[in-house]
Amino acid sequence: MPAITASSPGKVILFGEHAVVYQRPAIAVPVTQVKTKVSILAEPQKSSGSVQVEAPAIGLHTNLDNLPADDPLVLAICSTQGALNLPHLPAMTIRITSTIPVAAGLGSGAAVSVALVRALSAFLDHPLSDAKVSTIAYQVEKKHHGNPSGIDNTVITYAQPVFFTRGQPFELLPVAEPFTLVIADSGIKSPTILSVADVKNGWQENPAYYDSLFDRIGEISRQARGFISKGPCSSLGPLMTANQNLLKQMGVSCPELDLLVATALDAGALGAKLSGSGRGGNMIALVAPELAGKVSSALSQAGAARILVTLVHQTQPA
Ligand code: PMV
After folding, report:
1. Which runs of consecutive H residues, i.e. helices, occur in the chain?
2. Ligand 1 pocket, residue 18 CB under 6 Å
3. Given a cut of 60, is residue 101 above it in pLDDT?
4. Does ligand 1 lie within 6 Å of residue 217's CB atom?
5. What are the tens digits of pLDDT across the range 102-111?
6. Which atom of ligand 1 is nearest to the CA of 109?
7. Does the beta carbon of 21 sit less than 6 angstroms from any atom of ligand 1?
């Protein structure tokens, strides 16, 4: 029997990170240049329930029983089994590979959950709906990120640009004109849970100040929705830079990200900001396609650990 496989893209948040935790709208887009792949192979010669998990990049080669109950892989597998009402799993080997950098704001955790739930439910002959896949990935995120908004699991499940407000139905965004993003990794690993907790502390100490930052960011996301779906996409640039200034005031940028933003703007980017939880991870810059090479070189020289260039465009639902 051939292996069953499923893949998920990475993602970047274009507008609205952090504010989205507090019910303001945000926009995220898939990044297809990086992906997580999960393959599942039946092991009929092994006894029922034997689930071997292999993730060579992190040196993981073990039986599922050896992982802690709150491990994200265990949570995703058990939730899928629960959703399908299956008392036992057949013997299998699950192999996970990923080119999405970890703790860099590109959605590596949600991508593993989404691909794993999809591959496992297909392997068990009951492919789950996108809504169910996203819900399970969200449950896993909740255990590991404290208070996730749900934007990561949503954009990665649907692999299309999304306009997302916590607690409300999300919108899949049409893209009027394709646009190019340069994504530069600061090289600093930044756990989401820490910056989300710091913003919460700040908000609790000074709610009026933080709420006004969140409101202004939410307004930027609303304006950006119009430019993405109707054009012109070049108008997204100044909105990105304005969003970055508000994130700086929120205390989630850092000198390395500020340098990457300034470098991208100096090299001709139309706008630039951090993406994700901040304090490290990635910076994104909107560029005219012909300037992608120049902006990328400038960012490399400024110390970016890795550069990706992605085209955001209209994708047809599968
Ligand atoms: O760093 P990431 O890609 O996990 O993004 C976190 C985005 C936040 O808005 C800071 C948190 C959230 O759950 O939306």
Report:
1. 72-83, 108-123, 130-145, 151-158, 192-205, 207-230, 236-250, 255-266, 292-301
2. yes
3. yes
4. no
5. 878 899 999 9
6. 4
7. yes
CA 240 to chain centre: 18
According to the model, what pLDDT value does residue 1 have?
Answer: 66
Q: What pTM was estimated for this model as a whole?
A: 0.96
| Structure tokens belonging to residue 131 | 């809504």
Token pair for residue 243? 């969003």
Residue type, 149: S
Please report, for the chain, the start and end positions of each structural domain, with discontinuous segments joined by +.
4-171, 174-312
What is the tens place of the pLDDT at every residue in 150-200?
999 999 999 999 999 999 999 999 999 999 999 999 999 988 889 999 999
| Cβ neighbourhood burial of 232 (10 Å; 0-12, 13-18, 19+) | exposed
Name the CATH architecture for the domain at 4-171. Answer: 2-Layer Sandwich (3.30)
pLDDT of residue 196: 93
- Does domain 174-312 fall under CATH 3.60.40.10? My reply is no
Q: Which of 152, 185, 211, 266 is catalytic?
A: 152
Residue 118 has pLDDT above 60, yes or no: yes
Amino acid in the structure at residue 54:
E
Ligand 1 lined by 185 (C-beta under 6 Å): no
How many angstroms is it from 150 CA to the middle of ligand 1?
A: 9
Q: Decide if 152 is catalytic.
A: yes
